[in-house]
Amino acid sequence: MKTLYWSTTIVLAIFLLWSAYTYMFSKATIEGVRELGFPDHFRVQLALLKIVAVLLLLVPQVPLQVKEWAYAGIVLFFITAIVAHTAHKDPVIITFINIFFIGVTIVSNLYLHKLFNLNNPL
Predict the structure, then answer these.
(1) Is this model's pTM higher than 0.70 or not?
(2) Both ends of the chain: CA-CA distance in Å?
(3) Which of 70, 94, 105, 119 could disulfide-pair with 53, CB 3.0 to 4.6 Å?
């Protein structure tokens, strides 16, 4: 159970950090975000929030309720990406990638709760 939790959480964290990096330093991504209609300050804000979310998920001492908010924000990011890319008529593979990462996020969250409930019975 721990292996599945940490595997999905690390895959999610790597993707979010890579995404945050490209939002800040990749000219193609920066231009792509502009083409989707988002202003530069929103791109920077998303990059920083992704980094914060990764820290909240990876640090074990962060309270469960705070981690829940991080998971909610991550799913909201993926849903926003699906809507933006669909409206822009981008290739459908982008939607499938975002749906895949929503699934990874859900599995990570579910196994966090399974671990939490095993370690702290009511």
Answers:
(1) yes
(2) 19
(3) 70
pLDDT over 70 (residue 92): yes
66: its two tokens: 């705070």
Q: Collect all residues with Cβ–Cβ distance below 8 Å to 5 and sequence separation of at least 6.
A: 108, 111, 112, 114, 115
* Positive or negative torsion for Cα 90, 85, 44, 99: negative
How many CA within 13 A on the CB side of residue 23? 21
Look at residues 23, 12, 110 and name the one whose alpha carbon lies nearest to residue 53.
12
Residue count (the chain):
122
The pLDDT value given to residue 103: 98
Ordered by start, the domain boundaries in the chain are: 2-119
